[in-house]
Amino acid sequence: MKNVVLCGFMGSGKSSVGAALAALTGARFVDMDRYIEKQENKRIPAIFHEKGEGYFRQLESLAAAALSKESGQIIATGGGAVMRAENVQAFRSGGVIVLLDVPLHVVQRRLRGDRSRPLLNTRDRGRALRELYCKRLPVYRAAADLVVENRGALPVSQMAGRVWEAVRALPAFQENAGPTG
Ligand SMILES: Nc1ncnc2c1ncn2[C@@H]1O[C@H](COP(=O)(O)OP(=O)(O)OP(=O)(O)O)[C@@H](O)[C@H]1O
Ligand SMILES: O=C(O)C1=C[C@@H](O)[C@@H](O)[C@H](O)C1
Ligand SMILES: [Mg+2]
């Protein structure tokens, strides 16, 4: 099976829908944020604080390249991972990219009170969130083979079912899908 790579803004549901999709399909689930934290033995805010964003983005690109060499995985990317074209290329070489699309107001609600977001640690957090969201949305859309809305109208397990049905119908997923595809 080709990889299914979930992208989207912070709080869009990549980790929760990704884990449910892995349970549904029997595929291995990899959460890139957790993968990097394990590798560095540090939480993401500490990596940003001690080494800077550039260092984190390097780790992210190395992870994207390494994971894309393997197949049969559901990959939850970090919120900024598809902002680099080289990462998009790597993800696409090994699978299909699915955008979990959420309106800004849903993101605002889901991230309220969450202080573990280095990019939002500014004086005007609401504005930082809005600007980042508007900058990223077109890049996410351009990267995606498929866009699925996850505003919370359906429970996570049903979202996973909906994503899986749509992914299976993608010609890019079926090409060279192999015996288990
Ligand atoms: N369909 C849904 N229905 C209800 N709650 C949802 C749904 N999708 C996601 N959520 C909730 O939204 C929050 C964010 O989801 P999740 O952690 O999966 O997002 P994420 O994209 O991995 O975010 P990040 O990696 O930036 O923390 C979680 O509390 C999750 O339970
Ligand atoms: O949106 C982003 O740039 C980020 C999202 C998180 O998943 C982490 O990858 C990190 O906090 C950066
Ligand atoms: Mg996550």
Automatic annotation (TrEMBL):
Belongs to the shikimate kinase family. The gene is aroK. Its EC number is 2.7.1.71. It is found in: Cytoplasm. One of its GO terms (biological process) is aromatic amino acid family biosynthetic process. GO terms for molecular function: ATP binding; magnesium ion binding; shikimate kinase activity. Catalyzes the specific phosphorylation of the 3-hydroxyl group of shikimic acid using ATP as a cosubstrate. It catalyses: shikimate + ATP = 3-phosphoshikimate + ADP + H(+). It comes from the Bacteria. It comes from Ethanoligenens harbinense (strain DSM 18485 / JCM 12961 / CGMCC 1.5033 / YUAN-3). Substrate binds at residues 33, 57, 79, 136. Monomer. Mg(2+) binds at residue 15. Pathway: Metabolic intermediate biosynthesis; chorismate biosynthesis; chorismate from D-erythrose 4-phosphate and phosphoenolpyruvate: step 5/7. Pfam families: SKI. Binds 1 Mg(2+) ion per subunit. InterPro entries: P-loop_NTPase (IPR027417), Shikimate/glucono_kinase (IPR031322), Shikimate_kinase/TSH1 (IPR000623). This is Shikimate kinase.
